[in-house]
Write a structure and sequence with these properties.
single chain, about 900 residues, alpha+beta, Beta-Lactamase, five-stranded antiparallel β-sheet, 28 helices, about 40% helix
C-alpha cells in the first residue's frame, strides 16, 4: 500500500477511536474498524470462564449489513484461542478450512482473519479484537497498526467499565450491610453531624432517622456532647479505630448499657466515622453474676480441707486449692496448665484419663491411688471426679482425700482377721470358740468332721459337744477356769453324733476375740494314733515298698521316653535307607535292613511296655497260648546268652491259655534269664518251662500275700549258687542289686513284680536241688479262645508314589524332627522342621497359608501338642493337624476332635501308616 494510503488509514483510525462516545462505544468501535479495514465482520469480546472451558462474549459486533446481536462462542475451537493472552495473529487466506469446527467462520466462507489480544492494566488477558473477511488479507502491517490503535481504546473502555461495576457493587454491598445489620449504625461527618442511621439504630434508640439527621447530639446518651467523645471522634478521623462503653437511655426513658465502636471510612470522597453500637446490658449482668459466682466458688474452693484439682476437657489443670499445695508440695504456679498427672504415679495416668472421659460424659467417678509429693513421700488417696460446668465449658473437679491412716487400719484389721481365719480353718485339730456366756461363736471344718454335727447344728446349741452327759459338770467347770484365764488340758472318752466312740485329747485356752475374752477349745482325735501305733511297723514296710516301686516307675519312664525318641530316628532312617535304589539291587543289604527294622520294632514294643509300667497304667493283654509266646521269645533270648549257657525248654502247649500282653512276656522272660546268666557267671544250664497248675496254693515272694486258684506257670530255673535268705527278703526292691557297680541297675525283678501283678499273677521263688534257684511266674488261666498267630513278614519296600504339599513338623527332639523332614521330602513334600513350639507358632502366624498340614509332638517344653493345635486352628480353622506321642495314654476320639486334631500317631511312627494318612489328608 502506498505510504499516503497507510497514513490516511491511521489518521481515520485515530479519529474514529477519539470520536467514539456513549453507551454503545464498543459497537461504534467495531463499525469504524470494519469500515477502515473493509472487512466483513469486526468484533470486540471479553473472555469468561465456564465449566467446559473459556468462552468469548462479544461486547460489540459489526457486519456488512450493520450491527449484529452480541453472542458467545467457545474459545478453543476458533482462531481467537491462539490470540487471547498471546499476540497479534493474521491468517491471510483459508481461515475457515484451518478451523472447521468454527461454525460462523465456515458459514461465512472466511478467507482472512486477524486478531489482537486485549489486556487489563495489570497485564491480565481480558479479551480479543478480531476481524474476518471473505477476501484474503494481504497487508499484515496495516492491519496490525490499525487494530493496535483500536485495541488501546477498547482496553481503556473495558477497564473503565470494570471499575464502574466494582464501584456500583461496593456501594450496593455497603447499603445492604448497613441496612441489614442488627447492631446500631450511625455515620457521622468530620463535624460530628449525623449523615445516616440504619434501622438497627432506630430499633435500639427509639428515634426515627429524620429526627437525628444533621444533628451533633448523642441521642442515646444522657450526657451532653463532651470533650471525651469528640476526642475519640478526632482520633477516628485520623485513621484510628476506637471503642468505648457508656450508659444510654432510649427515647422511652429505659436505661441500658451500650458498647460503641468507631471505624474511620471515606464516604463520597470525604472522611467520616461509622459508629457501631451494641446493647451489652445482658452481657454486663451475666458478667456481674459470674464475678459473684467466681468469688463464691473461690471462697469454697480455697476453704475445702480436701485436695481439689480442676481439669478441663483436654485434661489440663485449670486450678488447685491450698490443700492440694500442702499435700503435694507443688505450688499452684508449678502445676497450672499441665496436661498429665503431677502428684500421682505415672502408671496410674491411663486409668485416671479413662475416668476423666467418663466424668466428662456426666458420670461421677472414684478410684484409689497414691499421692506422690514433690519430696518423694507417698500417701494413699481416694480420688473422686465430679463433672462440673466452669465458665461455660465442661470440666472435672477432682477431690483427693488422704486415706493413709484408714488404709493402714483396714489392712491391720484384714490381716488380723485373715490370720485368725486362715489359722482357724487350716487347723487339723477341731476348734470351738465360745464367748464368756458359753455360747458357741465359731467352729472349724475339722470339728464338724470329727463330731459328725453340721456347723449350723453346733451354732444353734450351747451343748458340750464331746462330753457325755455325766461329764457336763466337769466341762462347765473347765470352761469357767478358761474364761478366768487358765489353760487346761485333758483326755476323755467321747462319742460322735452317730454314737461312734473315739478318744479325744482336749486343750482350752483364753483368747481375745473382737475385744472380748473367749474360750478356744482344741480337740484332737487320738483314736487313730493309738491304733496306728500298733500298725506302724506294717505300714512303714508297705510305704517303703510303694515308694520304691514309684521310683522305679519314674526312672523307667524317663529312660524309656528318651530311648523312644532315639528309636524313632533309628527306625525312620532304616526305612529311608530301605527306599534307596541300591537296596533293590542288593538282596543281602535288603535282608540286613529287614532284620534291623524287625529288631527295632521289638525294641519299640518293649519301650511301650516300659512306658505303660512307668505311668502306672494297665497294659493291653490279649488271649494267647503262653507256651507258644514263650517259644517265640526263646528265639530272641538265645542271642542274649553266651554259648556256655545250656538253654533247655519244656513247654506244655495244652491248657496254657492266659490273658497277657505278649511283649511283657518277653520282658519278664528276658529279665529272669539275664539274672540267671549273671548268677551262673555265664556258665551253666538254664531251664524254661510252661505248665498248667489247675489248683495251687502258695505265698507270693514279692507281695507276701497268700493266694490260691488255677494258674499257668512260667518257670525259669538256673544252676547257679542260689539266693541267700537276706537277699531274698529285698530282691524285689527297686535299685537293690548284689552286682558290681556298672553291671546292674537293680530294676529287673522290680519290673517283673510290676508286670506279673498287673496281670493278676504272683511270683514264687524256690531253691534248686541240690543248688540253683527257680522262679515260678503264675498267671491266671483264661478260657478265652486264642487266635491263630501269623508271623509278621517284613519286606523292604520301594519308594512310594510322590505326594505334594507343604508340611510343618514340630518336635523338640532334633534327630526326630530331621528324620521326619527327610522322610517327607523323600515323598516329594516341602517340609519345614522346627524344634521350638513358639518359633513354629510365630512362623505360622506370619503366613497361615504357607502350610497344608502340621505334624506336632505332644510333649514339648512349655506346651503340649493339644495346646499348640488349638492356637494354630484359632488362626486357621481348616488346617489339618496330626498329633504324635511317645506315651501310651489313652486319648479319646472326642478329645482329639475337641482340639481339632485329625489323627493320632504313636512314636516311633510307622512310615507306612504316616504315608497312608498324608495321602488322604493332602488330596
Amino acid at each position: 500500500m502506498p505510504e499516503d494510503k497507510l497514513l490516511e488509514a491511521l489518521q481515520n483510525a485515530a479519529l474514529a477511536v477519539s470520536s467514539a462516545r456513549g453507551d454503545r462505544i464498543f459497537q461504534e468501535l467495531t463499525r469504524y474498524l470494519a469500515t477502515i479495514l473493509h472487512c466483513d465482520i469486526a468484533l470486540i469480546g471479553e473472555v469468561r470462564g465456564s465449566v467446559n472451558g473459556d468462552i468469548v462474549r462479544t461486547l460489540g459486533v459489526h457486519g456488512r449489513d450493520g450491527y449484529l446481536e452480541n453472542f458467545e462462542y467457545p474459545l478453543a475451537i476458533t482462531p481467537c484461542g491462539e490470540v487471547v493472552g498471546k499476540s497479534f495473529m493474521l491468517i491471510a487466506e483459508d481461515a475457515s478450512k484451518r478451523y472447521p469446527e468454527d461454525e460462523p467462520l465456515v458459514k461465512l466462507g472466511a478467507n482472512g482473519y486477524a486478531g489482537y489480544p486485549l489486556y487489563d492494566p495489570e497485564g491480565k488477558a481480558i479479551g480479543v479484537l478480531a476481524i474476518v473477511s471473505k477476501k484474503p488479507m494481504k497487508n499484515a502491517g496495516l492491519v496490525e497498526s490499525v487494530m493496535k490503535i483500536f485495541a488501546v481504546r477498547a482496553e481503556a473502555e473495558m477497564a473503565r467499565r470494570a471499575q464502574e461495576q466494582a464501584l456500583a457493587s461496593s456501594a450496593e454491598q455497603y447499603r445492604a450491610i448497613f441496612h441489614a445489620a442488627a447492631d446500631s449504625m450511625v455515620l457521622r461527618d468530620a463535624e460530628f453531624r449525623v449523615v445516616d442511621v440504619n434501622p438497627g439504630y432506630e430499633a435500639m434508640s427509639g428515634h426515627k432517622r429524620e429526627e437525628v439527621l444533621g444533628r451533633q447530639v448523642l441521642t442515646m446518651s444522657p450526657q451532653a456532647l463532651n470533650e471525651h467523645v469528640l476526642g475519640l471522634h478526632q482520633r477516628a478521623l485520623a485513621g484510628e479505630s476506637v471503642i468505648f462503653e457508656s450508659h444510654a437511655r432510649r427515647k422511652s426513658g429505659e436505661r441500658f448499657h451500650i458498647e460503641t465502636r468507631g471505624v474511620p471510612i471515606t464516604y463520597r470522597g470525604e472522611p467520616h466515622v461509622l459508629y457501631i453500637g451494641r446493647d451489652i446490658t445482658s452481657r454486663r449482668t451475666a458478667e456481674q453474676a459470674l464475678r459473684a459466682s467466681e468469688e463464691q466458688y473461690r471462697s469454697i474452693f480455697n476453704a475445702v480441707a480436701d485436695s481439689l484439682v480442676l481439669r478441663d476437657a483436654d485434661f489440663r489443670i485449670v486450678d488447685v486449692n491450698p490443700a492440694y499445695v500442702t499435700l503435694s508440695g507443688y505450688s499452684r504456679e508449678e502445676v497450672i496448665g499441665h496436661d498429665h498427672v503431677v502428684a500421682n504415679p505415672p502408671s496410674d495416668e491411663g486409668r485416671i484419663r479413662a475416668l476423666h472421659e467418663r466424668a466428662l460424659a456426666g458420670e461421677s467417678v472414684i478410684m484409689e491411688s497414691s499421692r506422690i509429693a514433690k519430696d518423694g513421700s507417698a500417701r494413699n488417696v481416694e480420688l473422686r471426679g465430679v463433672p462440673i460446668e466452669y465458665r461455660g465449658a465442661p470440666h472435672v473437679l477432682y477431690i483427693g482425700r488422704d486415706i493413709s491412716e484408714r488404709k493402714r487400719s483396714e489392712q491391720a484389721l484384714r490381716d488380723s482377721e485373715e490370720q485368725y481365719r486362715a489359722i482357724f480353718n487350716a487347723a487339723a485339730d477341731a476348734l470351738v470358740l465360745r464367748d464368756d456366756t458359753g455360747r458357741i461363736v465359731d467352729v472349724n471344718a475339722a470339728m464338724c468332721a470329727m463330731s459328725g454335727y453340721t456347723r449350723e447344728e453346733v451354732l444353734r446349741h450351747r451343748q458340750w459337744i464331746f462330753a457325755r452327759p455325766e461329764l457336763a459338770p466337769l466341762a462347765a467347770e473347765m470352761f469357767h477356769r478358761v474364761i478366768a484365764g487358765e489353760s487346761v488340758q485333758f483326755e476323755l472318752k467321747a462319742a460322735r453324733k452317730d454314737g461312734t466312740p473315739l478318744d479325744i485329747e482336749m486343750r482350752a485356752v483364753t483368747v481375745m476375740y473382737r475385744g472380748k475374752p473367749h474360750a478356744l477349745g482344741m480337740a484332737r482325735d487320738i483314736t487313730a494314733r493309738k491304733r496306728a501305733d500298733a500298725e506302724r511297723s506294717a505300714l512303714e514296710l508297705q510305704l517303703r515298698q510303694a515308694q520304691k516301686m514309684e521310683a522305679i516307675g519314674h526312672l523307667t519312664g524317663g529312660i524309656a521316653h528318651d530311648f523312644n525318641n532315639l528309636l524313632a530316628s533309628i527306625m525312620g532312617h532304616i526305612v529311608l535307607a530301605s527306599e534307596q535304589e541300591a537296596v533293590s539291587k542288593n538282596p543281602k543289604l535288603a535282608r540286613y535292613l529287614d532284620q534291623s527294622l524287625a529288631s527295632a520294632r521289638k525294641a519299640r514294643d518293649l519301650i511301650r511296655q516300659m512306658l505303660t509300667f512307668s505311668r502306672g497304667q494297665r497294659s493291653t493283654p490279649r488271649a494267647l497260648n503262653l507256651a507258644q509266646a514263650v517259644e517265640e521269645s526263646l528265639r530272641l533270648l538265645r542271642g542274649s546268652l553266651p554259648a556256655t549257657v545250656d538253654l533247655c525248654s519244656f513247654l506244655d502247649t495244652e491248657q496254657a491259655g492266659v490273658m497277657v500282653d505278649p511283649v511283657q512276656v518277653d520282658q519278664v522272660l528276658l529279665n529272669l534269664a539275664i539274672n540267671a546268666r549273671d548268677a551262673m557267671s555265664g556258665d551253666g544250664s538254664l531251664t524254661v518251662g510252661v505248665h498248667a497248675r489247675p489248683a495251687l496254693e502258695a505265698v507270693c515272694a514279692s507281695c507276701r500275700q497268700r493266694f490260691s486258684g488255677g494258674f499257668v506257670e512260667l518257670s525259669v530255673a538256673d544252676s547257679g549258687p542260689g539266693i541267700p535268705q537276706q537277699v531274698r527278703e529285698r530282691m524285689f526292691e527297686p535299685f537293690f542289686t548284689t552286682k558290681e557297680v556298672g553291671r546292674g541297675s537293680g530294676m529287673g525283678l522290680a519290673t517283673v513284680h510290676g508286670i506279673v501283678h498287673e496281670h493278676g499273677g504272683h511270683v514264687v521263688v524256690e531253691p534248686g536241688h541240690p543248688r540253683g534257684t527257680r522262679f515260678r511266674i503264675l498267671l491266671p488261666t483264661s478260657a478265652a479262645p486264642v487266635p491263630a498267630q501269623a508271623e509278621e513278614k517284613l519286606v523292604v519296600r520301594a519308594a512310594p508314589a510322590k505326594l505334594h504339599g507343604r508340611i510343618l513338623v514340630i518336635d523338640d527332639e532334633a534327630p526326630v524332627a530331621e528324620f521326619m523332614r527327610d522322610l517327607l521330602e523323600g515323598w516329594g513334600i516341602q517340609a519345614t522342621a522346627m524344634t521350638s513350639a513358639r518359633d513354629a507358632l510365630d512362623a505360622f502366624t506370619a503366613d497361615p497359608g504357607a502350610y497344608d498340614l502340621v505334624i506336632t509332638d505332644q510333649t514339648m517344653p512349655g506346651t503340649t501338642g493339644f495346646s499348640l493345635a488349638r492356637e494354630l486352628l484359632g488362626k486357621r480353622p481348616d488346617l489339618p493337624v496330626i498329633l504324635c506321642t511317645g506315651h501310651l495314654d489313652a486319648v479319646a476320639r472326642r478329645e482329639l476332635e475337641s482340639a481339632g486334631i485329625r489323627a493320632l500317631l504313636h512314636k516311633p511312627v510307622e512310615p507306612e501308616e504316616l504315608y497312608g494318612l498324608l495321602r488322604t489328608e493332602l488330596q
